[in-house]
Specification:
With about 140 residues, the chain is mostly helical. Helices cover about 65% and strands about 5% of the residues. The protein has a two-stranded antiparallel sheet.
Amino acid sequence: MKKCHGIFVECKGLIEKDTNQAPIPRNMPFSSGAIRWASGILDRFVPKFGKFQELSESLYKSEEYLEVVKLYEAIKEKIEKYQNEKKSEFYQFVNEKCVDKLDLKLLKYNEEDKKSELAVKSLQVNFNPNLVRLLKEVK
């Protein structure tokens, strides 16, 4: 029981330390990478606690068990809160920066060509960097 408690305390410390700098792979976008990181922790964490609960009914009455359950619930709540924060940050980013950009035309005439005396006009891709970030997140 003490070993399990120590593992949970260590896990809680890692989560509190790393949530601001989640280890996201380079090829993953920030928001979805952070959410995936948190989901991965939950995927490893929740089934192990389920196995721990199946050990013995005599453990349910001990103080150590109740402390481990409280720690588990605190860790799980912190991870779920982190996921919800990242989702709301992403939704806010989309609403603030990208919704109006989606209505813009994809191609536009190059502004420099309008000023020149040449009759040839070139087209330019009208992609905002915020829209590119959005597309990376949703693919």
